[in-house]
Amino acid sequence: MATRRTDPAAGTEALTTWALDPAAARRAVLAPAVRHTLELFAEEHPGGAVELRVPPYAAVQAVPGTRHTRGTPPAVVETDAETWLSLVTGDLDWDEAVSAGRVTASGERSDLTDLLPLPGPRRTVRTAREAHRQAGPASGGSR
After folding, report:
1. Full-model pTM
2. pLDDT value at residue 54
3. Residue 125: inside a domain
4. Strand locations in 44-88, DSSP E?
5. 3 domain-assigned
6. Alpha-carbon dihedral 48, 53, 54, 56, rounded to 10 degrees
7. d(C-alpha 117, C-alpha 97), whole Å
8. Domain span at residue 110?
9. What is the CA radius of gyration of the chain?
10. Interacting residues of 104 by C-beta distance below 8 A, sequence separation 6+
11. Cα separations (Å) of 34 from 66, 72, 89?
């Protein structure tokens, strides 16, 4: 099981902030949101067959299979923060991200199609966006 390093409440708050305005998200939001969702992914899919990297924020080992301890892992998936959060929340499809060059994936078990999105983060984002839509003009959301 992955060691949790990010406070779950801070991670969820950052993910919610990102969900409401992804383009405006900066390091203070991206770092805890990415770390939190990577930790959730590693908990949901424990193992060491794939190293999932989202530089400069974090990396985790996940997915059952051959575990590595030194050198190049048997499978590596790397992407940027925006793409990772979009994948984990269901805003972006795996195949679409790979085709667009937004994800590099190499090695056995590096295809995460069946592992994404994660239900918890997906629900968090949908709930935040729905609440924001329902708040409407009263929240300052109109122009």
Report:
1. 0.90
2. 98
3. yes
4. 50-54, 58-62, 75-79
5. no
6. 120
7. 13
8. 8-136
9. 16
10. 76, 77, 78, 79
11. 25, 22, 11
Q: Which residues are bridge partners to 77 per DSSP?
A: 52, 105
Digit-coded pLDDT (tens) for 115-130: 999 999 999 999 999 9
Could you give the 3-state DSSP secondary structure of residue 117?
A: coil
CATH of the domain at 51: 3.30.1050.40
How many structural domains compose the chain?
1
3 vs 22: CA distance, rounded Å? 27
What confidence tier does 2 reach under pLDDT thresholds 50, 70, 90?
Answer: low
The structure tokens listed for 94 are 């795996």
Within a domain: 57: yes
CB 18 within 8 Å of CB 54: no
Give the mean pLDDT of 97-109: 96
What is the separation, in whole angstroms, between the first and last Cα of the chain? 46
Asked if the model's pLDDT at residue 141 lies above 50, the reply is no
Q: Tell me, yes or no, whether 13 lies in a domain.
A: yes
